[in-house]
Design goal:
heterodimer; A: 199 residues; alpha+beta; Rieske Iron-sulfur Protein; 2 domains; three-stranded antiparallel sheet; 4 helices; 9 strands; elongated; B: 405 residues; mainly alpha; Cytochrome Bc1 Complex, Chain C; Helix Hairpins; two-stranded antiparallel ribbon
């Protein structure tokens, strides 16, 4: 008996059948991986309302948004004054480095500097952009209140206890920190004069 | 294709450390299988496929399912709510749950066909007794896994099904009550029961996977039976498993998946046969549903249970109806395996299949006096089939066997 196999046809069938099988297997993976993404009810709980009037002058409050910590700071005029004069110490003074540190309403140099819709109320994601710890609030200038944990020319801001990243009072990262970026902003808007909708 | 892969350097590296080539040859490319296997021989590989499907879908369901009977709003519970959340909020949750629920029924369809094949063609007979016995163990574990799984949605059928089955054990003399409490973790089915059933429902499929490995190993020692029941191990009567039966099994998988996905997408509850309507009512320990029946694949044994007036006798006979499967290879004394050459056994085994279906029908229906009588007759034949086997070969005139296949 001679071998009558048409090898090229057979190879075509191998590839065609194998290819279809691979496509089907790939399609079957979609629902399984998809099921591990946040469920509809988790997504629905992704907005948080907060009344910033409840934050006292100079006070910092940590609230939750999508299970993440968020800083709400009521900045006094003294704190706001600390924003100026150290741009050379910052990695990204105008918050242009990545999308997450910028926002649509940052249309003036003022707003880029204060990083908030209303200058006195700063609302930022409280996770250090290095590895996600919550930085400590050290708002006053210099080492008087904070000792060796901050540099001598400390402008006031945040100090991350995990790996020593430093942020100024507008949550902009200071050069020499392991953190790459300013603290992230999340979308938010004012529903009333003092009520913000985060998310 | 496989040959090409086996010639690569990477394969050589693996082979040196695992002996992969010898395994592939002895188990696949040079593993000899009778050339005349019909489509009834596809159900083994299909059962393996469904087992994998059940394990995979189950793992993903366990990421969202919460085994707790703690109350939430409006007499719902954490467990019931978590299932509804899977159905409504989790991405593709409905698909994965329906795949799992339909998969449970598909598993039994496939395995019952597989067992029926073994009965009809005498695959349980020597030298395959142990292969058959391992298979019966697999069946029992499957039934256990299915039963544990059915409690998890914590619906009315879940709750009362579990109540009925755990009460079965209460019928045993002396040991009854302690065993029952051991199963339930309390004095009635409740939160502890739900937690341990979830744990066991996760454990049993892993046991299954291991024992299925043993089942396949046992098969590869004694080799496949075939429709003629003749002993064929080599030569012109056999062909290698790969590529001939891998391709045939793959075709079977295609047919199976077509039917399976049709049901999953278009009729996942199968009019209450695969997911009972009452199970969409949250469990209520103060009210039993008007009509309570197990899912279809357990109904034949449920009928046997109901056919006896004495509670203890019913429980024992139900146990016996499964236990008798273990001794089947030793009850049948005929030298001929396949029903093709055994006219009397052939009639008996056909009647046995009908009987099991009748038992299933009776168990699924609300009890009436007529159905009870039919159920009792069917139960009688169920046992008669096994008990008559040692006598059959004394008068059965078998047809002449062919020389070769």
């Amino acid at each position: 008996m001679t071998d009558q196999t048409d090898q090229s046809r057979r190879n075509f069938l191998y590839v065609a059948a194998g290819g279809m099988g691979a496509v089907a297997a790939g399609a079957a993976v979609v629902p399984f991986l998809g099921s591990m993404l946040p469920a509809a009810d988790t997504l629905a709980a992704s907005k948080t309302e907060y009344d910033v009037a409840t934050v006292q002058e100079g006070q910092l409050v940590v609230i939750q948004w999508q299970g993440k910590p968020v800083f709400v700071v009521n900045r006094t005029p003294e704190y706001l004054a600390e924003v100026d004069g150290h741009d050379d110490m910052l990695k990204d003074p105008n918050s242009e480095h990545i999308e997450a540190v910028s926002a649509e309403w940052m249309d003036t140099p003022e707003k880029r500097k204060y990083r908030s819709i209303k200058p006195e109320y700063l609302v930022v994601v409280a996770s250090c952009t290095h590895l996600g710890c919550i930085p400590l609030f050290k708002p006053t200038k210099g080492r008087t209140d904070w000792g060796e944990s901050v540099p001598e020319n400390w402008p006031g801001g945040w100090h991350c206890p995990c790996h020593g990243s430093l942020y100024d009072i507008s949550a902009r990262v200071i050069k020499g920190s392991p953190a790459p970026d300013n603290l992230h902003l999340m979308p938010y808007k004012y529903l009333t004069d003092t009520k913000v909708l985060i998310g | 294709m496989l040959e090409k892969m086996m010639k690569t350097k990477l394969f050589g590296w693996i082979d040196e450390r695992t002996g992969a080539e010898a395994i592939i040859k002895s188990q696949l490319t040079e593993y000899q299988v009778p050339k005349n296997l019909n489509y009834m021989w596809n159900f083994g590989s299909l059962a393996l496929l469904v087992l994998v499907l059940q394990i995979v879908t189950g793992i993903f369901l366990a990421m969202y399912y919460k085994p707790s009977a703690a109350m939430t709003y409006g007499s719902y519970t954490v467990a019931f709510d978590s299932v509804e959340r899977i159905m409504r909020d989790v991405n593709f949750g409905w698909l994965i749950r329906y795949m799992h629920a339909v998969g449970a029924s598909a598993f039994f369809v496939v395995v019952y066909m597989h067992i029926g094949r073994g009965l009809y063609y005498g695959s349980f007979k020597g030298p395959r007794e142990l292969l058959w016995i391992i298979g019966v163990i697999i069946l029992l574990i499957m039934q256990g896994a299915a039963f544990f799984g059915y409690l998890l949605p914590w619906g009315q059928m879940s709750f009362w099904g579990a109540t009925v089955i755990t009460n079965l054990f209460g019928a045993l003399p002396v040991l009854g009550e302690p065993v029952q409490q051991l199963l339930m973790g309390g004095f009635s089915v409740g939160d502890p029961t739900l937690n341990r059933f979830f744990s066991l429902h996760y454990l049993f499929p892993l046991l299954l996977a291991a024992i299925v490995g043993g089942h396949i190993h046992a098969l590869h020692v004694v080799h496949s039976n075939n429709p003629t029941g003749l002993d064929v191990h080599a030569g012109k009567s056999t062909i290698p498993f790969h590529p001939y039966y891998t391709v045939k099994d793959a075709f079977g998988v295609g047919v199976f998946l077509t039917i399976y996905t049709y049901i999953v997408f278009f009729n996942p509850q199968m009019s209450g046969y695969f997911i009972e309507v009452d199970n969409y009512v949250p469990a209520n320990n103060l009210q039993t549903p008007a009509h309570i029946a197990p899912v279809w694949y357990l109904t034949p044994w449920y009928t046997i249970l109901r056919s006896f007036e004495s509670k203890l006798l019913g429980v024992l006979m139900m146990g016996a109806s499964l236990a008798i499967l273990f001794v089947l290879p030793f009850l049948d004394r005929s030298k001929v395996r396949s029903s093709r050459y055994r006219p009397v056994y052939r009639q008996m085994v056909f009647l046995f299949f009908v009987t099991v279906i009748v038992l299933g029908y009776c168990g699924h229906s609300a009890p009436t006096p007529t159905l009870k009588l039919i159920g009792q007759l069917a139960t009688t034949y169920y046992f008669a089939f096994f008990l008559l086997l040692p006598l059959v070969n004394k008068f059965e005139k078998t047809k002449p066997l062919p020389e070769e296949i």
